[in-house]
Design a protein that fits this description.
This protein has 132 residues and is α+β, with helices and mostly antiparallel strands. It is built from six helices and six strands; from the N terminus they run αβββαβαβααβα. The longest helix has 11 residues.
């Protein structure tokens, strides 16, 4: 991510957390409070270090930092990302109104709304806790 884009995300309230090993940054993930939910943003693990539990540890840590429902948006074609989030017990938010969720909580172009999915934490999915 270019430095200018990173600064824009930070200015918008995304707080980034990193996973280091031996002083080397191996993964990052952002947390953003938006209205009544917490968004997980910009989750990346170096390709050579994927499958080692780094993303799962970051996601677990970020989820422990909030009591609000957790939402994650990603590209529908990013099957590897969707699989990762489903393994972390997040569920497809289609029945919660994917388009409405994307428009309420993210500032993205219409084309991105059409080509994205939203994953929801199991507590929200199981209880149908209302979110905007």
């Amino acid at each position: 991510m270019p430095a200018e884009k990173l600064q824009h995300e930070i200015d918008d309230g995304v707080v980034f957390w990193g996973y280091e090993d031996g002083g080397r940054l191996l993964g990052v993930m952002g947390l953003q409070q938006v209205q009544d939910v917490t968004l997980i943003r910009h989750a990346y693990v170096l390709t050579a270090n994927q499958g080692q539990g780094i993303g799962a540890r970051l996601l677990s840590h970020l989820c422990q930092l909030t009591n609000d429902p957790v939402l994650i948006g990603t590209w529908a074609d990013a099957v590897w990302a969707i699989r990762f989030y489903e393994e972390a017990r997040l569920s497809d938010g289609v029945d919660r109104g994917k388009n409405r969720l994307l428009k309420n909580y993210w500032t993205i172009p219409e084309r991105q709304v059409e080509t994205s999915v939203v994953l929801v934490d199991p507590e929200v999915a199981d209880t149908q806790r209302p979110i905007s």
